[in-house]
């Protein structure tokens, strides 16, 4: 395929997807989140707990405080809930940030018009544009609102998942062209609205109950105990000191967090190869690193696999050749982390947690999570629990605010 032909197809696909977005936006947004009072799912008779899971359940109930995030998750698993964004610990372990609207408005909205314009912000224009998410020329409370969770079935996400064939979080011109070619099955040089409707139907839950990789309650209870679906700890809170650690680096020397704390903020990205949402944000993470790498330090902290083949396995992982058991040694985990970094084509420095999971557990970093640490070594931003809370754009917003706060010419408080 010639360079000109690839470019033509890319633009054709873009235009087609724009039409798709118009068509599916309302339907997808209506179905993206289950209601807050989502009732327990009906459990099939064969979903009785295994003897092992029943014993683990008893032990967890004895060990976990009744009001802990992990206990909330455990009880919703037992009830057979779908574990959507409003279930389990996802409804309580939400993002925490220093930079809510009252705080930034008090500092930057000097004329008290409930808007922060570029002059009031005073920082680089590209930083202002990142904060002005709706592009209306001013930062408002709406720009700081994050209503969609990271897995919301919005049109762009639906298209991205189907077009990213190798699962590395980046769409290339060849991948765009392949989507177009598959849609244009008759080779007429264009696609129709009906082609798009058939290829990208509005999402439903009708087939989820019969998915072969749907986990049983026993699988989820055992996965919770092994901390594969998330740490049993809650992690440090907003403004808490970031727990220190020393970890091996894929680049060679070990890295000690306390020795990295300084003038530049630190971004910690927790994730693993078998976590699909982590992989899908690889392109976003790489872009953040390239955009802010001279103003902040970035580290990926590689943690326990979320979906190993000997645990809660995923059909999607198998379809792209990511089918591996849970590493049982530090070297095995380093090997898998290296494979992950290579597959995702990430230049962000990789640190690797040990199989004892000390760092992933204390930061509540499994299966994926984001932290921003200030020059004093304290937490300035903490994302919600992954995968629903793994919003890289929300992290970027907090980073830009923190960088603005650290500028020598930052505006004083209006109060």
Structure characterization notes:
With about 425 residues, the chain is of the alpha+beta class. The protein has 2 domains: about 1-95 and about 150-225, no CATH class; about 235-405, 3-Layer(aba) Sandwich (Glutaredoxin). Helix content is about 40%, strand content about 10%. The chain contains 17 helices and 8 strands. The protein has an 8-stranded mixed sheet. Strand 2 (about 245-250) and strand 3 form a beta hairpin. Helix 1 (about 5-30) crosses helix 8 and helix 3 packs antiparallel against helix 10 (about 215-225). It is globular and about 65 Å long. The N and C termini lie far apart (about 60 Å). The model is unreliable at about 1-40 (pLDDT under 50).
Give the helix/strand layout.
Elements (H helix, E strand, L loop, with lengths): L2 H29 L19 H13 L5 H11 L16 E2 L3 H8 L9 H4 L3 H7 L23 H9 L9 H11 L9 H7 L17 H9 L20 E4 L2 E5 H4 L5 E6 L4 H5 L1 H11 L4 E6 L12 H5 L10 H15 L5 E3 L5 H5 L6 E5 L5 E4 L9 H15 L9
Parallel strand pairs: 4-5, 5-6
Antiparallel strand pairs: 1-8, 2-3, 2-6, 4-7, 7-8
